[in-house]
Amino acid sequence: MTRTKAAVAEEISLTVGYDADETPPIDVLETLADVLVGEHDLSAMLVTRRRARRDLSVPSFIEGPPAAVSFTLGAPDVEAVGLTRASRPPLPLRPTRLGPTGTPALHHTFGDGTGTEAWNHLHTLMAHLRST
Asked: What residues of the chain score a pLDDT lower than 50?
C-alpha cells in the first residue's frame, strides 16, 4: 500500500492455478472488472496468462512468458486521457465501457492468453493512451 494525496493506493497480484485440461474462466474478467470499478474504484487492472504448474505451494520455476489477456483503465484515467481518445485505440477490437455512463472505465480484451499478438496490442494501446 502507498499513501497518496487523494487516497491509499494498493497493488495486488493474484495467481490461480489450472490443470492443462482445464480452461481458465477468462469470460468472467469483464464482470470482475465491472465490480472492481463500481465498488472499489479500480484504477487499472492487467490480466496475464502463462503456462505453469497448478500446485502453487511448490517452488516456482520459469515455464514460459505470460501473455496479456486484458487491460482495464479506470474512470479517472479515462477522463484524463479523454473518453473519445481512450475508447478509440488503433486496435482491431474496441473496449467495453464499465461503470457509470458519464464516467466509464474501459475494459480492453486481447484474447485468451494463448495468442502471440497480445503484448503488441497492449503496447499499442499504452502508446496511444500516453500520446495525448
From this structure: none
